[in-house]
Amino acid sequence: MADQNPQDPFEMFRRLWGPLGVPVPGMAMPTLDPQEIEKRIQDLKSVEVWLNMNLNMLRGAIQGLEMQKAGLQGMQGMQEAMQQAMQQAMQQGMPKDPKDKKP
User: Fold this and answer.
1) Cα–Cα separations (whole angstroms), residue 2 to 15, 29, 66, 73
2) Do 101 and 95 meet the contact criterion of CB atoms below 8 Å apart?
3) I need a labelling partner for 24 at 20 to 30 A (CA). Which of 46, 69, 70, 82 fits?
4) Please, are residues 18 and 28 in contact by the beta-carbon 8 Å criterion?
5) Which backbone phi and psi does 47 adopt, to 5 degrees?
6) How far from the centroid of its chain's Cα atoms is residue 94's Cα?
């Protein structure tokens, strides 16, 4: 066994991990071709750009919803304030119609 010289330098890892049924990330089909490695790097960079774009879109959607929520809360606050003002005015006995006032 010591005199065996395997062509694939990663054969030892495959034999080590193979019986466990656990795939070794990036080791399933290792390549020694620099062009293939460069292609994989570019593919992963493309995925990274796509993920960043989606992350930015998600952040924008979250910010938009937060602004919508703040706007709704502000409108509800104004509505409640107007209702309270109307109730106070009615409790003070203000006439509903200014023509009902007697001079």
Assistant:
1) 15, 25, 67, 76
2) yes
3) 46
4) no
5) -65, -40
6) 54
pTM score, whole prediction: 0.50
Distance of CA 53 to the CA centre of its chain: 10
pLDDT digits (tens, 9 = 90+) for 39-85: 999 999 999 999 999 999 999 999 999 999 999 999 999 999 999 99
In whole angstroms, what is the distance from residue 86 CA to residue 80 CA?
Answer: 10
Residue with tokens 């796509």: 50
Cα–Cα distance for residue pair 54/36, rounded to 1 Å = 27
Measure CA 97 to chain center. 55
Q: How many CB atoms lie within 10 A of CB 13?
A: 13
For the record, the structure tokens of 94 come out as: 């203000």
